[in-house]
Write a structure and sequence with these properties.
The protein is elongated, with a radius of gyration of 29 Å. The chain has 181 residues and is mainly α. α8 (139-148) packs across α9. The chain has nine helices and no strands. Helix content is 44%, strand content 0%.
Length: 181
C-alpha cells in the first residue's frame, strides 16, 4: 500500500513537470486552468508607464528643476547669492507660518528658539533660530538649509516642501527673528 502511494506520488510529480521550463507547476499554472482566471492571465498588456502622466497639482517632484547646493560652508557664497522671489506680504508670512508649524515647529519650537517637543530627544542640539549667528544668515542660506538639511540632525525637506513654500518659511522665520515685519 505504501509502495503504491509512493509510486502514485512519484508519477504525479513527474507528470506535473512542465517540459518547456523544467519546473514544477506553480499556483498560477493551476489557476490558469479555470476558464475565467485564464482570461486574466492572458490579456492584452497595458504599459502604464509608456505614456507620460502629468504630476498631480501640488506635488513636489523628487527630481526637479530647483537645484540647491548643500548647506555647507564651502557653498555659502552660492547660497548667499540666492534671492528670495517671494515678497514678505501678509499672505506669504501666513503661508510660511502654516508650513513652519507642519515641518519646523517640532524641532525649532513655535517661537523658533529650538525648544520644540522633539529637541530633548536629540540632545537639545536644535539650532535656536533667534541667535545672532542665525539672524546673520542670508535668506538663501536659510532656504538651502531647508532644502538640503544641515549636518546630521537637520533633515532635508527639499523633497517634501515646494520651492515656493520654502521661501514662505524663510519669510516667516525672518518675522520670528524680528528682522522683518
Amino acid at each position: 500500500m505504501k509502495r503504491r502511494l509512493l509510486l502514485m506520488l512519484l508519477a504525479g510529480v513527474l507528470a506535473g513537470c512542465n517540459e518547456a521550463t523544467r519546473r514544477f507547476p506553480g499556483p498560477d499554472d493551476v489557476i490558469a486552468l479555470v476558464p475565467w482566471f485564464s482570461n486574466m492571465r492572458e490579456h492584452v498588456a497595458i504599459g502604464p508607464y509608456k505614456m507620460p502622466l502629468q504630476p498631480v497639482e501640488g506635488t513636489v517632484p523628487v527630481t526637479g528643476t530647483d537645484v540647491v547646493p548643500a548647506a555647507i560652508p564651502s557653498n555659502r557664497p552660492v547660497l548667499d547669492q540666492l534671492q528670495n522671489p517671494m515678497q514678505r506680504t501678509a499672505a506669504s508670512i501666513e503661508r510660511g507660518e502654516d508650513r513652519y508649524a507642519i515641518y519646523c515647529e517640532l524641532c525649532h519650537g513655535a517661537d523658533g528658539s529650538g525648544n520644540g517637543p522633539v529637541a530633548p530627544a536629540i540632545a537639545n542640539s536644535v539650532r535656536n533660530l533667534l541667535d545672532d549667528a542665525q539672524v546673520q544668515n542670508t535668506d538663501g542660506w536659510i532656504y538651502g538649509t531647508i532644502a538640503m538639511g544641515f549636518g546630521a540632525l537637520m533633515p532635508e525637506y527639499g523633497s517634501k516642501i515646494s520651492p515656493e513654500d520654502r521661501w514662505h518659511i524663510v519669510n516667516y522665520v525672518r518675522v520670528l527673528q524680528g528682522v522683518a515685519q
